[in-house]
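Lab notebook: predicted structure, single chain.

Context: the supervisor wants predicted structures on file for every construct in the current expression panel, including those that have not yet been purified. This is the next one on the list. No modifications to the sequence; it matches the entry in the shared construct table.
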Amino acid sequence: MAASRARAAEVPGAVVRLMDEDRAMAEAEAAKGAIFGGVPFLAKDLGATARGLGNAAGCPALRRRVADPERDSDLFERFRASGLVPFGLTTVPEFGLAFGSEPRAVAPAVNPFDPTRTAGGSSGGAALAVAAGVVAMAHATDAAGSIRVPAACCGLWGLKPSRGVTPMGPEFGNHLAGLGTELVLARSLRDVATSLALVNRNAGLHARLKRKAQPESARVTLCLPRDCCDAEAIAAREAAEALAGVGCEITEVAAPERLGARADRVSRLILTVALAEWVDSGGLKDCELTPLVAAVAAEGRALSPVSVLAATREIARITHEAASLFAAADALLMPVMAGPPPSLGHFPDGETDPARHFARMTAMAPLATLANVAALPALAFPAAMRDGLPVGAQLVGQAGHDAELLDIAAPLAHHVIVPYPAPIAGMPA
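Prediction complete. Output recorded below exactly as produced.
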């Protein structure tokens, strides 16, 4: 814990708030004995909350209004029962609204492999913290790619779980009509899989983790979006070859881009109306928000109840149609991003045209929202190193088959050795 706190001070842009040192050290000591006994852990400044660490979604005005919770959310109760010790909050863009994490009030989350580039978003601070060695893993959320994009930017493993597999209560503030799910970013598949198993216990929903295919005979379909660059396509193909080498059946089909475009549209509507509700329920005024957040919230307020109800029906349709993608496949393999991590400032919070902003998001991570809308598990993993930067890919599975998806990914656990810029604080190099 002492080493993690010291390392956090050396990595600007990763952590926006630290818990009192005496309390953090006492909680670390008390956590010994569990599977992750005493392991330092960071909460994201958005999503499920840890006691003593009220999150404010990167918004200074909201932080002034938010009290620290006296109890853990259901997810953090399970994190803590596993021995993890939350001791701080990681950087996010204001209200999680970008694939970069550069809130105005604090240092930006830069890419640890190239500080002129982004670490991704909205879990950018979490990704930077793990890749730069502040912690071994950190809490992350994903409503439109916010676990997988930072994982791809920073050479990490990150699972967007199936809807209902990890707990969202008691507040369900990040539920977003089912688009949002939460887990961790980590340097290893092992830590992601262990975290999933520990927090899924007795989830109380349609949440039993299913297994069907044997990893050595899994059917994996390669899908390459037309707009992805050569490095991303090559990295995904190399991952497919590695899976073929252990007996997986590999086929290639056109990426489901029409279905993905529909998912983008419904995702934007839900995120927009949810932001309007969030801002208004917090009593926030436009002058307290970035121009981008104010513009998106205004768009959300203008939406009719009829259009929101229609969006929930479209979510059900897309979920139903996405099941056909697995008629002859146990998993889909595709890039996470269309190209390398963009430069800092790629998502200006002074933007006043929401359409332009969401178009940048789609261009950076095509097909990212499909897994969110269709309730599918999606595992981002390091697929290559190119010109000193990690290149990520993702495996997408059938809803509820998260454990099977992790089994299929097992041969990729050491497919790429990522040269992280620092060891994990407090652990051997």
